[in-house]
Structure prediction request, 356 residues.
Amino acid sequence: MKEFLLLFLLATEASSKSHGSWCEPGCDCRGDLKFTICSRALFTQLPGRVPPSTELLDLSDNQIALVPERSFSMIRRLRVLLLQNNNISVVEDGSFSQLEFLQRLDLSWNRISSLSEGFSLGLGFLRELQLAHNHLTTLDSKSFFHLDGLQRLNLTSNAIHTIQTRSFGAMSALRQLHLEDNRLTSLRGGTFSMLRSLEVLNLKGNRISQTEEGVFKPLTSLALLNLVHNKLITINFKTFLSIHTYSTHILLEGNPWHCDCDLQRVFRKLRSIQRLFLDDYYNLSCEAPPILQNYRLMDVDTELCIAETVTVLIITITVVITVLAAMVMGERKRKKKKSGKHWTQQGDVSDESEHN
Ligand SMILES: *[C@@H]1O[C@H](CO)[C@@H](O)[C@H](O)[C@H]1NC(C)=O
Ligand SMILES: *[C@@H]1O[C@H](CO)[C@@H](O)[C@H](O)[C@H]1NC(C)=O
Ligand SMILES: *[C@@H]1O[C@H](CO)[C@@H](O)[C@H](O)[C@H]1NC(C)=O
Prediction:
């Protein structure tokens, strides 16, 4: 056993020596040169020497500012590339185009403000893309053009206010889309139209006040829709009715609900739909009218329609009384007419009932 260990140590030593020239100072190349760890190495640019056998390259926590075109042409076996916590503002077109086996790319905590079509070039195998905490404002229809295999996209904490219609067009395999803490104000019809595998749609912490009727309709695998902390004051029943799944959980807490009879009705109808679960319904609170501010919708919802019910009741009663009265009058008239006819038949007086 001891001998074996010694042999192993010698072998490792030899291997690290013979490949030493491949390992950039500041990096730690291990695991048969499959792992190259260059985290916190104070790099301001990508290292020049990385073992070609590297499958995981960790460059997190450096100060790299630029990812030039074809940067990784020497390490084509790469499966995981970690670039989070750098100072990257520019990703040149085709930077990753030769990484055909790349499965996971982490670019979170950088300064990226736009993504062109060339960004995703060659990344057809990518499963997970982390872009949280960057400076994106608009998702272009071509930003993710080549990412047909992507399953998880994390865009949390950017400043996204516009999503062009076909931005997610290629992503029929996408399962999770995280758009938490951005600046979206409305959701337009075709936005999610190709995302038939999407299970989680996280829109928490935006400024969404409007959702177009069919916007969630294409999401036939949706299991969780998070709309917590937005600007919804009411909801459109059909927007949610159009979600055709086996079961979908919907979170709606932290919106400034305008509590009126219409809202109460919509929620009553939604809650009766078996496939939809409004998990935090009991936590929804009213922002308006002022008299109901901070009341929980659940506590007032039975009363919201009372005033309306009373009005309806009064109208109904009035109508019923009027109709009844009219019927009684009509009946009376008819009877009199009948007796009038009787007289006429006898030939004595004509039309007497008319004058009465
Ligand atoms: C990060 O990049 C910006 C320019 O994009 C530069 O002004 C700044 O000094 C850089 N910061 C560091 C820590 O390198
Ligand atoms: C998205 O990114 C944020 C910030 O890096 C992280 O905290 C969160 O766990 C990520 N979510 C997923 C599902 O990857
Ligand atoms: C409702 O709010 C309470 C207190 O903020 C929290 O603990 C609970 O998890 C919430 N329930 C749901 C279903 O979100």
